[in-house]
Design a protein that fits this description.
Blueprint: E1 12-13, E2 25-27, E3 33-34, E4 46-48, E5 68-70, E6 91-93, E7 114-116, E8 138-140, E9 162-164, H1 175-178, E10 186-188, H2 192-200
Parallel strand pairs: 1-3, 2-4, 4-5, 5-6, 6-7, 7-8, 8-9, 9-10
Length: 201
């Protein structure tokens, strides 16, 4: 874990981690780090990189064995990284990424259990491949103000117990889209027009 306050004013480079071949957990939140991310350990299981200044996650990101990727409050506009290369990834947290326009393509990602897009205020599109995430148990879309609809494939999320889409004033929901979600026990929605849409179905 790198303390951002202890390194205030110090420029950090990825080559500082080059010899840490067995590194499993790396927390570099609120720290500006430059260099080739390919130099980070390929054994990483947990990576926390809050407020990352990058607009796109580079394709050479060491993600093959990642289980948890936390990129909260980052400047990411496009995810970039192909999730089929992250076969072990269980938790992806992009909460507070206010410039993120669309979710990544989830094709080939079968291990994801938790997806957080809370307060991604520019998010407008959820990739329809989200329906392939058969192990997904946590989906948080709270505060996605520009999101207008959910892909119909969301009804394939048969293991999802809770769906959070509160504080999404632009979204329109059709009950038919969620009617086949067999494990859904909690459905969080707050906007009155959304409730009216449901009642009309």
């Amino acid at each position: 874990m790198v303390d951002p306050w202890a390194l205030k004013g110090v420029k950090l480079w990825t080559k500082a981690f080059k010899k840490m071949k067995n590194l499993r957990v790396l927390k570099i939140d609120y720290v500006h780090i430059s260099g080739d991310f390919e130099l980070l350990s390929k054994e990483l299981r947990w990576l926390s990189r809050k407020r990352c200044p990058l607009k796109c996650i580079p394709s050479n990101f060491p993600a093959a064995k990642l289980v948890v990727l936390n990129m909260q409050e980052s400047n990411i506009q496009e995810f970039g990284l192909k999730l089929q290369c992250c076969k072990s990834l269980k938790r992806l947290d992009l909460s507070g990424c206010k410039h993120l326009i669309r979710t990544p393509n989830f094709g080939g990602s079968r291990s994801l259990e938790t997806l957080w897009f809370r307060d991604c205020s520019s998010l407008m599109k959820i990739h329809p491949s989200i329906g392939n995430l058969v192990r997904l148990i946590n989906l948080d879309l709270d505060g996605c103000k520009k999101l207008t609809d959910l892909p119909s494939s969301i009804c394939y999320l048969k293991s999802l117990p809770a769906l959070v889409i509160s504080r999404c004033p632009s979204i329109h929901i059709q009950l038919v889209d969620i009617g086949d979600m067999q494990s859904l026990r909690r459905f969080y929605v707050t906007a009155m027009d959304q409730l009216l849409d449901l009642l009309k179905c």
